[in-house]
Write a structure and sequence with these properties.
Elements (H helix, E strand, L loop, with lengths): L1 H6 L4 H13 L4 H14 L3 H14 L4 H14 L5 H11 L4 H14 L5 H11 L4 H14 L4 H17 L4 H13 L8 H12 L5 H14 L2 H14 L4 H14 L1
Helix pairs in contact: 2-3, 3-5, 4-5, 6-7, 7-9, 8-9, 9-11, 10-11, 10-12, 12-13, 13-14, 14-15
Length: 257
């Protein structure tokens, strides 16, 4: 293998040798790079190469090199038509596969095929509302397709709220809602419906540290440090694993007063 690479041999024989080398070690980036050079020189049928990469991905779905190679082949063909189906299949086995998500997001951004992506995320969350990757992806899709208008933010807070009420101790949906507000440098007071939901849940004595920490942030925003301090005190018991963090937050109130 080293000898033909040194000679820069671009032949069917060399291509077959890269196949053998990849089957032995699919993480060999140098071999993948050499394989692409051969494909370019031979003007090979890249549909065959797509099938080859699919077989490697199916066997090693967390192999960075094969995903990178796949992206390069898509750039060469200009045809991303199979990629959403491929990543959907891969994610059905492992919903947290970073490489599959990264490839999917690249395809969406590069070829502007956003149309049905929110529907796909809805399907994922209906199956598993704790799918943090799906929540992150939802943020990515909206950020890069339609942007965060006031109307969109209100709709997304309502959307997150339906999942928050289903599972108040699911951190993912809380992070999504809070992230929207923080990222856009807005205030909770700008969204009375979301605030009312949180207050109502608290009045129903729902024991959720994410609910309480959100309410504490609301009080801090309003300048009500006493109410915020009382909540941080409760959080020390409810979320004892992060007791030192809540103490820190409590101390910060005194520093800022």
């Amino acid at each position: 293998m080293a000898a033909i690479m040194q000679k820069k041999e671009y032949s069917e024989r060399a291509l077959a040798l890269t196949t053998d080398a990849i089957e032995c070690n699919a993480a060999n980036y140098t071999v993948w790079h050499y394989r692409r050079e051969i494909l370019r020189h031979l003007k090979s049928d890249l549909q065959d190469e797509m099938k080859f990469t699919e077989s490697v991905i199916d066997d090693q779905p967390k192999n960075y090199q094969v995903w990178h190679h796949r992206r390069c082949i898509i750039e060469m063909t200009g045809d991303p038509s199979s990629e959403l189906e491929l990543t959907e299949y891969t994610l059905s086995s492992d919903a947290k596969n970073y490489h599959a998500w990264d490839h999917r997001q690249w395809v969406l951004s590069q070829y502007k095929i956003w149309d049905k992506e929110l529907e796909y995320i809805d399907e994922l969350l209906s199956k598993d509302l704790r799918n943090n990757s799906a929540w992150n992806h939802r943020y990515f899709v909206i950020e890069n397709s339609q942007g965060w208008s006031k109307e969109t933010i209100c709709k997304e807070l309502e959307y997150a709220g339906t999942y928050i009420k289903k599972a108040p101790n699911n951190e993912s949906s809380w992070n999504y809602a809070r992230g929207i507000i923080k990222k856009n440098k807005l205030k909770y007071s700008d969204f009375p419906s979301f605030k009312e939901m949180c207050v109502g849940m608290n009045e129903s004595h729902i024991p959720s540290p994410f609910l309480l920490s959100t309410l504490a942030d609301m009080h801090v925003e309003e300048g009500n440090t006493t109410a915020a301090s009382n909540i941080f005190e409760k959080l020390k018991d409810l979320d004892s694993i992060r007791e030192k963090y809540w103490t820190f937050r409590q101390d910060q109130l005194q520093v800022g007063s």
